[in-house]
């Protein structure tokens, strides 16, 4: 799955990050990353329908990028593993071992 992220505000101990999914570039959703605690907080849901598991997968990938300090300061697209990827992998393996 693809997600769009943009750093909205940079504070001493936290970042406010806008995010959205798929073809929506609005970055309407909001997350707060607390650098001092290494924790992510959801402030506002994106406009798109998304499951809790998909959101968790996205946040996990984003936290890893933030810890490694590799998130750019401009709007950027990131690819992360989604539920659909796991299901497709399962179908592939079923065919291989059938």
Structural descriptors:
5 strands, alpha+beta, 2 helices, 98 residues
Structural features, described:
By secondary structure, this protein is of the alpha+beta class. Helix content is 31%, strand content 34%. Strands 4-3-2-1-5 form a five-stranded antiparallel β-sheet, covered by helices on one side. A hairpin with a 7-residue loop joins strand 2 and strand 3. The longest helix is centred in the middle third of the chain and has 16 residues. The mean pLDDT is 80.
Could you provide a short overview of the structure?
The protein is an alpha+beta fold and 98 residues long. The protein contains two helices and five strands.
Described by strand count, sense and barrel closure, the largest sheet is:
5 strands, antiparallel
Catalogue the unreliable spans: none
Mean pLDDT over the full residue set = 80
Radius of gyration: 15 Å
Give, in order, the helices and strands: EEEEHEH
Which structural class matches the secondary elements? alpha+beta
Number of helices: 2
The neighbouring-strand order within the major sheet is 4-3-2-1-5
Helix percent reads 25-40%
